[in-house]
Sequence to fold (152 residues):
Amino acid sequence: MLDRLPSIGRYDLFLAESADDQSAYHRLRRTVLFEARGRFDYIPDGPEEIKERNLSLLFKLDGQPIGTVRLDQKPDGRAIVRLVTIAPDLQRRGHGTALLERVERLALSLGIRDLLVHSAPDAVGFYQKLGFSPFEFEAGNFKSVQLHKAIQ
Fold:
């Protein structure tokens, strides 16, 4: 099982497994993706969080947790990028781009060739700058915008 990707520059992306890393992972997600948007229904250990093929990843800069992402591996070389988070005081400084670059490298190493994402409407431009385009991959009444990117 993957436990750590090689460091690239000042960044690390790895499974959030230790108690400290799990705490940082959930704190970032809860405060940035839920509480900052007026939601207080965050469930840290929901069923999707503990599936073996769903990788809960912590992103660090110089050893400090600054972001999170979950990579849900699907059949046929696809994965869904979920709950991308960068600490509020570090947003719009290139860290999100660095995080997604590392997610792409990880995905390729796992044999994934197509990344999917449910984007918040206000984050669509971020994903489009990284090469994602609109693509409906799940039917339903979502408040998100579905996007995909073929990776090589």
In short: The first strand starts at residue 11 and ends at 15.
